[in-house]
Amino acid sequence: MTDEPESIRLRDQVRDIQAQLVRSEKMAVLGSLTAGVAHELNNPIGFVKNNTVMLEEYLQVLLPVLREVLVWSREPEGLAATLGERIASASGGEDLEPILDDLAPLLADTREGAQRLEDIVGGLRSFARADTPEGEPFDINQCVKDALKVAWNELKYKATVVQSMTEVQVLNGKPGEIKQVILNLLVNASQALADYGEIRLGTRQLDGEVEFFIADTGTGIAQEHLERLFTPFFTTKPAGKGTGLGLSISRDIVTAHGGRIEVTSKLGEGSEFRVFLPIPQDDP
Length: 284
Description:
Blueprint: H1 4-72, H2 78-90, H3 96-128, E1 136-138, H4 140-155, E2 159-165, E3 171-173, H5 175-191, E4 197-205, E5 209-216, H6 223-226, H7 246-256, E6 260-266, E7 270-278
Parallel strand pairs: 2-4
Antiparallel strand pairs: 1-3, 4-5, 5-7, 6-7
Helix pairs in contact: 1-3, 3-4, 4-5, 5-7
């Protein structure tokens, strides 16, 4: 006789696997499209940045001249008075002084926005790049920075992010997969916050390994759930909010790199995840 609860559980697992395969295929296509879109965005962003830099250089020359002309045009007699009238007519009576004052800050904001776009595109391109099968040297601090760029839209309205990255040795492996782990932990930390909170993250070097840690001030995880946290399809999130595969996949990636993940949590206070990765040993 068929065990009905077991039958339902297996059916649900099959359905979840099918949904995950569909999502994986969509993500593969999205990754390919993202790489193309990021490449196309690079050119116009470059134009905006370069043009902004040139405009700022031109303004450094023109602004003092324009201010002198403006001051002179306010003289009450002769050519100055005539010039003042023509400037007033051409400007529709607008006060030009605050406009001149605003030009440099506006250009600075534009340059900062273009730089932000370039950072986001760089992060997307980095995530879209395929890892080499044999692995490669990588800087985990750069992986954290790239993951933050991609996750920023998820984080900026929900948390204050406090970073404490330190200089660590170069590791070896698949940086794209490590970024996936970091991104998953960042999103999980954000989703664990019931209201606006704090996320602390950083890196540090220990004896023979490098640690990445991320802690949140979220709702925390019940102790009875901690042992099952990395079990495939187990999730404490509401229906439709998670597949229960993120942490399982993250653990498999870290294990494949010779590392481990540890977690501590307390209900109502938050959670901390620590990823340990081995430092490559020099051949004798």
